[in-house]
Amino acid sequence: MLELTHARIGYGPVTVVGDLNLTVGDGESVFLIGPNGAGKSTTLRGISGLNGLQAGTMTWDGQDITHLPASRRAARGIAVVPEGRHVFTQLTVQENLEVAARAVNRAAVRERIDEVFDLFPRLRERQHSFGGLLSGGEQQMLAIGRALAQRPRLLIIDELSLGLAPVIYQHVGETVRELAAGGLSVLLVEQNARLAMRICSRGYLLAHGEVVLAGTVEELERTDEMRDLYLGGLGKVG
């Protein structure tokens, strides 16, 4: 479904990610991990269209969308949950969801909001609360719900667990895993390797703007790099 081939991504003349080859298949869940500064968020900006590719190509369903603007990529089914959530703090939960749903299909706004509330019952309870008054976990649910209100084919999440207590990110992570199991394609950038490997079936390890490891969860958890640097020597992911 999504394929980056020899992609180079950066800011102006500065290259952060070079010669990147990455794929996410239809109904597949894929993670992207690596140290700070490895180029993970830059990669997501390249995929979403916020940063143009300096070189290489990006295809979606076999069609070249390398030069397609971010708005048209979103219309094709690519939705992003940004790092830090970035909910509209002066809008209520319901209004946040309405903004996202109306951007894609005005005729199905109520239906899409109800789908999000069914997925995250806590948001239904807080639907009249302003986004800025929500807890970190509630804001993450809202950010994910806002993306899902667009009914995407590919859900991209940048740092799912950032700033959240373990019990909260495990709950939200389980919801994302259920979405992936239900056939939604997911691309997850995550510092918590164990969480990423529970949600996804395949992944990439970035370092210094390059892919240094790639494979299925089973393949990656057998490597010294994953065990020593990200799994704490604890062995198989549960």
What does this structure look like?
The chain is α/β, with parallel strands linked by helices. The protein has a domain of 139 residues: Rossmann fold (3-Layer(aba) Sandwich). Helix content is 38%, strand content 26%. The protein is built from ten helices and ten strands. The strands form two sheets. The chain has a six-stranded mixed beta sheet with strand order 6-7-8-3-9-10, with helices on both faces. It has a four-stranded antiparallel beta sheet with strand order 2-1-4-5, with helices on one face. Helix 3 crosses helix 4, helix 3 runs parallel beside helix 6 and helix 7 packs parallel to helix 8. The chain starts with a strand and ends in an 8-residue tail after the last helix. The mean pLDDT is 91.
Descriptive key words:
238 residues, alpha/beta, Rossmann fold, six-stranded mixed β-sheet, four-stranded antiparallel β-sheet, 10 helices, 10 strands, 38% helix, 26% strand, BCAA_Transport_ATP-bd_LivF, ATP hydrolysis activity
SSE blueprint and pairings:
Blueprint: E1 2-11, E2 14-24, E3 29-33, H1 40-48, E4 53-60, E5 63-64, H2 70-75, E6 78-81, H3 93-104, H4 109-119, H5 121-125, H6 136-148, E7 154-158, H7 166-181, E8 185-189, H8 193-199, E9 202-207, E10 210-216, H9 217-220, H10 224-230
Parallel strand pairs: 3-8, 3-9, 6-7, 7-8
Antiparallel strand pairs: 1-2, 1-4, 4-5, 9-10
Helix pairs in contact: 3-4, 3-6, 7-8
Largest sheet: 6 strands, mixed
* CATH top level class name of one domain: Alpha Beta
What is the chain-wise order of helices and strands? EEEHEEHEHHHHEHEHEEHH
Class computed from helices, strands and strand pairing: alpha/beta
Number of strands: 10
Radius of gyration, taken over Cα atoms and rounded to an integer in Å: 17 Å
Judging from the principal axes of the Cα atoms, what is the shape? globular
Mind telling me the CATH superfamily name of one domain? P-loop containing nucleotide triphosphate hydrolases
Q: In what order do the strands lie side by side in the largest sheet?
A: 6-7-8-3-9-10
Examine the coordinates and then state which fold CATH places here, giving the name of the CATH topology of one domain. Answer: Rossmann fold
- The CATH level-2 architecture of one domain is identified as 3-Layer(aba) Sandwich
Sheet-strand content, in percent, reads: 25-35%
- Helical run tally: 10
- Helix share of residues? 25-40%
CA distance, first residue to last residue = 29 Å
Mean pLDDT figure: 91
| Poorly predicted runs | none
